[in-house]
Amino acid sequence: MVEAAHEPSILVTHHAGWAEVTLNRPDRLNSFNVDMHLHLAKALDGIEADEDCRAVLLTGAGRGFCAGQDLSDRVRPADGDAPPPDLGATIETYYNPLIRRLKTLRKPVVVAVNGVAAGAGANIALACDIVLAAKSAKFIQAFAKIGLIPDSGGTHTLPRLVGMARAKGLALLAEPISAETAERWGMIWKAVDDADLMTEARALTAHLASQPTQGLAMIKEALLASETNSLDEQLDLERDLQRRAGRTPDYAEGVRAFMEKRPAHFTGKPE
Ligand code: T3D
Residue 140 Cα, ligand 1 centroid: separation in angstroms? Predict the structure, then answer.
């Protein structure tokens, strides 16, 4: 008997200086099961360790970006004796490490939200550094519809991005909002015509991959820290990071290129 070929749940395509990671369970709108979590973590391990990879693009296969947790792994018979699943364990093991990783990865992460982003799928997209979304895409904090709360950082990220009134509306009503509304509210960087999404996302990622990688990593670090730091703490952090940025070869090259009126050639190398 010939076994059915197993479609990988994560696809990684390497380009010059950057990598494209595709969530690949299109028949389930790229919702997460354990296999996809494990393969995504492995892909990000490789990207993190690869000095030549200086930016990441995340997207989804098919008509959706990601519908969050695969709920077919969570079904219990109404009259059965099966104990409830420990959702805290899944979050601790898979979702929280993924969000921490996206936020702290020392290279920019662009996301191309190619279609609906629901539940954890929406908040994973919002944890990326630059969010581009197809105009046909929708963002849905779907959790309340099944008795859950926004996870994957949603309760932290949403009020900071869109303010408490909108965060509460999104979380409590679980209604879809369009990419254009998300852009207008400041939740994402840009809504893009569907036909242009991947071309624009790839060009943006390639551009970021050619920039001063260490400096970009320090910008991410400073902005993340600003979510909890006082102004005094942030000023101190800016001083320390600027000191380090000033020691990088890319800073020296950036200044030289400016003075010589030519494009800079950044290498992304550390201090
Ligand atoms: O559990 C834990 O570990 C805790 C962590 C939780 C994190 C979470 O993300 S909880 C939230 C889970 N996600 C949702 O509640 C969203 C569920 N999906 C939807 O509400 C809708 O599918 C969408 C609004 C996203 C899209 O709607 P629509 O009409 O465009 O598509 P559809 O027909 O509903 O879905 C297409 C197929 O994908 C369909 O399968 P079928 O009928 O063609 O065989 C549908 O069942 C499947 N699908 C969509 N989302 C999921 C899913 N299958 C499993 N799990 C899903 N989340």
Answer: 11
